[in-house]
Amino acid sequence: MTFLTVTLNASIDRTTFINGFNINKINRSDTPIESAGGKGLNVARVLNILEKDVLATGFIGGYYGEKLKYLMEKDNIKNDFYQIKGETRFCLAIVDKKNNTLTEINENGPNISKEEFEDFLKKLKFISKGKKFIILSGSVPTSLPEDTYFQIINYLKDLNIPCILDASRKYLKKAIQSKPFLIKPNHVEAQDLLGYELNTIDNILKALNDIKNFCEMAVITYQDKGSFIYYQNNILQFIPPKVNIVNTVGSGDAFLAGLVAKLEENKDLEEIGKFATACGTANALTQRAGYLKKEDLFTIYKNVKVIKF
Ligand SMILES: Nc1ncnc2c1ncn2[C@@H]1O[C@H](COP(=O)(O)OP(=O)(O)OP(=O)(O)O)[C@@H](O)[C@H]1O
Ligand SMILES: [Mg+2]
């Protein structure tokens, strides 16, 4: 197995469709969509679609944990999660087509004890052996400390496997001190990390320069403006073509899956960035988060604009 994704706060993601959502009223919904959620699982799902060999891990528990396993297996995601006493969380997204709104209710996640976390670390080290990349993505259950990603990356250091981190807020702030191989904030997360606005190209270039003190590859994604990547003394911007967006949730995860897929194939930065962009944009063409249709990739890839700085 080549890739390992770590999802600390996996969830049952249910998207329900209501035509004209009313607060304080009974709302009738159409048939919902359910999927194995959490950003690491989005990355795993897309890597799987790209025919890459990927194993998903994290914490799982209770009845929803069983359901999560069922949903992962439905997507052919190979999984080996650590079983906890608590219950896997449930996240609800309400899509209102009439008012064009998306309302999300995301649970904080289960209680994970210190013993469970320490036991998980041992399991993680064991299943990490032989992997080429470890991708750590998404939120952290509130019962775990702020330096959880920092602890995990440090604990895995002696294996010498590049760790790729997609986290935000205090978790990201702490984790960069453990010097992961790559971090991929979006522009809002990068602003929060650095404490200044990323509203000009100069500021974004400055941000990449600041971030690269902590990692070998620095990526900032910026929705339809595309992405900026620093790697091996080069900075490139990748601008996606204009497309008819359906749902951009999970575009960052699909982008990351495309990026590691091409990194592992030792492609050059231009190909890595164009393919990652194609995956991020292809995700936005589907309703499901962390999903894409392979047939969309080539057309988008051909039309990605690359700017060198
Ligand atoms: N509106 C859009 N049009 C075209 N491409 C898009 C659009 N939004 C996102 N993308 C593509 O996906 C990439 C990642 O998007 P974005 O910056 O929104 O990530 P994100 O905020 O981390 O997403 P998430 O955390 O929901 O997965 C962009 O760099 C771009 O290539
Ligand atoms: Mg993101």
Question: How do the strands and helices of this protein lay out in sequence?
Answer:
Layout: E1 3-7, E2 11-18, E3 33-37, H1 39-49, E4 54-60, H2 62-74, E5 78-79, E6 82-83, E7 89-96, E8 101-106, H3 114-128, E9 133-137, H4 148-156, E10 163-166, H5 169-175, E11 182-183, H6 187-194, H7 201-211, E12 217-221, E13 227-231, E14 234-239, H8 251-264, H9 269-284, H10 294-302, E15 305-308
Parallel strand pairs: 1-4, 1-9, 2-7, 4-5, 4-6, 9-10, 10-11, 11-12
Antiparallel strand pairs: 2-3, 7-8, 12-13, 13-14, 14-15
Helix pairs in contact: 1-8, 4-5, 8-9, 9-10
The structure holds adenosine-5'-triphosphate (ATP) and magnesium ion.
Name of the CATH homologous superfamily of the domain at 1-144: Ribokinase
Main pleated-sheet profile:
11 strands, mixed
Strand content: 15-25%
Mean pLDDT: 96
Cα-atom radius of gyration = 19 Å
Q: How would you spell out the order of helices and strands?
A: EEEHEHEEEEHEHEHEHHEEEHHHE
* Assigned CATH architecture of the domain at 1-144: 3-Layer(aba) Sandwich
Head-to-tail CA distance between termini: 36 Å
Q: Structural class given helices, strands, pairing?
A: alpha/beta
